[in-house]
Amino acid sequence: MTGEERQAVRAAKDALRKRVRQIRRAMTAEERAEKSARAAERIAALAVWQEAENILVYQSLPEELSLEPLIRRGASAGKRFAYPVCVSGGGMKAMRPGAWRRGAFGILEPDPERSEETAPEEIDLVICPGVAFDREKRRLGMGGGYYDRFLPLCRKAAVILAAFEEQRAEEVPAEPEDIAMDYVATDRKVY
Q1: What is the pLDDT of residues 144-188, one digit of tens each?
Q2: What are the tens digits of pLDDT across the range 3-55?
Q3: Rounded distance, CA 105 to CA 32, Å?
């Protein structure tokens, strides 16, 4: 991919992010909660969820699909959860929270000094956020590339993007390093 092509793809990604974020912000808190609960049901029905023991999840931003219903369900079934922690240099670690703090971008994350790191190869399932997706299960993230760099380290993990159906785009512009999801679970269906 030439520099000019990469620049065009990044401009298309930025435009799509802006459009989909407006759609998400237009939803009421009640709509988001209801749709999050429906998406949780769809994820919980998947064999990869049922078989997973160590799961990387995320703390949602106010306009994102919340995993809280799914996490409560999994915790009662004995599943272990880790959360991403952004580290210097654009990296990410998975940590089981012992305490919380506000991290990069104002997102609640485990406090690394009081939490336990989970090795990527121990993770069975990753459930990640995203801004948009398409039918080919391409994910458009926030633009930092954290998941694209971390996911290859999770060699045995299936990867699910959790999103509202309204986040589906006709096509997500992609660069060579962008990683497609194994599943996309929304409030309406699983791709």
Answers
A1: 889 999 999 999 999 999 999 999 999 999 998 888 999 999 999
A2: 899 999 999 999 999 999 999 999 999 999 999 999 999 999 999 999 999 99
A3: 21
List Cα–Cα distances, 160 to 14, 103, 111, in angstroms.
22, 23, 25
CATH topology of domain 3-185: Rossmann fold (3.40.50)
Opening angle at CA 176, ends 167 and 60, nearest 5: 35
In this prediction, residue 149 carries a pLDDT of 93
| Spatial CA neighbour of 167 closest among 143, 189, 145, 144 | 189
Helix axes 29-44, 68-76, angle to 10 degrees: 40
Confidence of residue 105 (pLDDT cuts 50, 70, 90): confident
Phi-psi region of 21 (alpha: psi -120 to 50; beta: other; left: phi over 0): alpha
How far is the C-alpha of 107 from the C-alpha of 158, rounded, in Å?
24
Radius of gyration, alpha carbons of the chain: 16
Q: Is the dihedral of CA 119, 121, 123, 129 positive or negative?
A: positive
Structural tokens at position 38: 């429906």
Residue ranges covered by each domain of the chain: 3-185
Collect all residues with Cβ–Cβ distance below 8 Å to 36 and sequence separation of at least 6.
65, 66, 67, 68, 69, 187
- 154 and 182 Cβ atoms separated by less than 8 Å: no
